Amino acid sequence: MSKPKLNRIKIVLIENNRKSKDLANHLGKTVATVSRWCTNEAQPSIETLYEISKYLKVDIRELLVSTSNK
User: Fold this and answer.
1) DSSP category for residue 63
2) Domain boundaries, position 47
3) How many domains does the chain have?
4) Is 66 part of any domain?
5) What angle separates helix 31-38 from helix 20-27, to the nearest 10 degrees?
6) Nearest-angstrom CA–CA distance, 70 and 57
7) Residue 37, Cβ neighbours under 10 Å: how many?
8) pLDDT tens for each residue of 28-40
9) Of 5, 16, 37, 45, which residue is most buried, by most CB within 10 angstroms?
């Protein structure tokens, strides 16, 4: 069974014409770490999600998969 998709970081990066490498540099994280978030292999902390939302200038809720459609 595959892991559930919990975040939309990759989608929001694409929508905002940003690269994961730039996000990694901004956060002081490795490109590999951001890649794992983008593929939902790992999840960032709430604090990091907050920083990502500020960087992308989106509501933090846009970075999460909605549970109301399930």
Assistant:
1) G
2) 9-60
3) 1
4) no
5) 120
6) 27
7) 24
8) 999 999 999 999 9
9) 37
